[in-house]
Amino acid sequence: MAAFRLAVVLLALFVAVSQGLDLPNKDVPLLVKTLQNLHRGPPKQTVLKRANVQEKWITQKLDNFDDDNKETYEMRYLVNDEFQEEGSPIFIYLGGEWEIEASMVSAGHWYDLAEQHKGVLVYTEHRYYGESVPTSTMSTANLKYLHVKQALADVAEFIKSFKAEHPQLANSKVVLAGGSYSATMVVWFKRLYPDLVDGGWASSAPILAKVAFTEYKEVVGQAFLQLGGQKCYDRIQNGIAELESMFDNKRGAEARAMLRLCNSFDDKNDLDIWSLFGSISNVFAGTAQYQRPGDIEYYCDYLLSFRDDATAIANFVYWGWGMPSCIDARYSSTVDYYLWAVNNFDAGRPWYYQTCNEYGWYQTSGSAKQPFGSKFPTAMYTTLCADVFGSQFSNEQINSNAAQTNLDFGGMSPEVENVYMTHGALDPWNPMGHGVAEGATLIANASHCADFSSISASDSAEMRASKERLAELVSEWLA
Predict the structure, then answer these.
(1) Which residues does UniProt assign to the signal peptide (predicted)?
(2) pLDDT, tens digit (0-9, with 9 covering 90-100), for 141-191
(3) CA gap 216, 367 in Å, rounded
(4) How far is CA 254 from the centre of its chain?
(5) Which backbone phi and psi does 322 adopt, to 5 degrees?
(6) How far apart are CA 247 and CA 254, in angstroms?
(7) Are 318 and 261 in contact (CB under 8 A)?
(8) Residue 476, exposed/middle/buried by CB under 10 A (0-12, 13-18, 19+)?
(9) How far apart are CA 180 and CA 129, in angstroms?
């Protein structure tokens, strides 16, 4: 039974990596695939009853801050008005770097709260993601219209237009929800447009821009240590260290064979090595970031079933990478893919642009307090910015961009009211957000965006308490 459960969990990891990619006619290099997995949307909700979710569109300005630019684009949104009545509050879920889908306004805790308050549910799609693509290509020149300030201005215009189109909602109160990057948007929207919303729920919101996000892999390691045990943590650390040593000590051919790398992989090229080990660490990161009760324990059982450390790592990541005939871990393939995506829309390119231009958040190996080795430094990620988007994205400029984001939005001091921030205590993103000392709620053993489902008997005491606290706050905001 345990073996069957393990196979199911490993298959789910492979499917999650694969389904996060809408990539016609193009092989996906390893680093791109693993980064895509880390930036898929929040978990889909289990829909128990049929809801009439309508797909609609709103005309938005291409540039919200240039009155001389008259260009527009069509932004998609989803509406569920099954509970709507005169004066209903408006429950808006903000889309992030993913394609919106109906379950988020058809089920889950936010849906339940809308039902309780007879609210109308809306899910907005972020410019440059899903079907809300405003330019004919994703060239660097066209991506200048991709910025969180533009996306927040889109939401502000949406709220005003939605109320204007529905006179019965003209005086309705508005509450926002978001997960991950869109949770960050909830916080920042309340900072920039406080009069347009009455409250917000930010689940797993990183609010501090930071280029070298070393804390991320530390928390991933802690998740495996806390849930999987010291032997599992040691196996990961020792196995990756052994693979690093093999490449360093002229055993590269042996390591390439163990990892099933394509013949084109160049173990004398630092960028190829960095890309490989970054991708190895990302398999563990994806496991921790989206772990559910029991997942890590089963992964650790699998890792500990092998006789030696390096073999365990090689087999585990091969599963996580989707078991292709050979693994394309070349750095140049990542660059080629993101350049291909100029004319072939894929969420990976615009999101990577946002990291270069606004946030950083590169999950690097710069800390010794994690078990994933030392061979995916910040330099790999910043070099990729320049190679994909142009030499203007120097290391100095990327750091300056992140500093500007913190200046614009207050970093760890956003100075907002009526925003409830929640984090999983084992969410690798939580170091970039508020902690208990700042008034946020940390949910024991939970990870990233883990609290969107309806209140249920399977919730931990901490999870249930957090959901109930949100319900109390929403009632206060809408009173």
Answers:
(1) 1-20
(2) 999 999 999 999 999 999 999 999 999 999 999 999 999 999 999 999 999
(3) 10
(4) 35
(5) 95, 10
(6) 9
(7) no
(8) exposed
(9) 15
Q: What is the pLDDT of residues 54-101, one digit of tens each?
A: 999 999 999 999 999 999 999 999 999 999 999 999 999 999 999 999
Q: Quick one: which H or E segment has residue 33?
A: helix 30-38
Helix/strand/coil for 281: helix
- The pLDDT score that the predictor gives to residue 453 is 96
Query: Residue 43 in contact with residue 449, Cβ under 8 Å?
Result: yes
Which H helix or E strand runs over 237?
A: helix 230-248
pLDDT tens readout for residues 47-63 = 877 889 999 999 999 99
Do the strands 120-124 and 72-80 form a parallel or antiparallel pair, or are they unpaired?
Answer: antiparallel
Q: Per the structure block, which two tokens stand in for 162? A: 């939605």
Q: Where are the domains of the chain?
A: 2-42+211-404, 54-207+413-478
CATH code of the region 54-207+413-478? 3.40.50.1820
Token reading at 66: 């240039």
What is the average per-residue pLDDT within 341-357? 95
- In whole angstroms, give the CA distance from residue 394 to residue 387: 10
The model's pLDDT over 432-477, given as tens digits with 9 standing for 90+, comes to 999 999 999 999 999 999 999 999 999 999 999 999 999 999 999 9
pTM: 0.93
Residue 210 near residue 418, CB atoms below 8 Å: no
Q: How many residues does the chain have?
A: 479
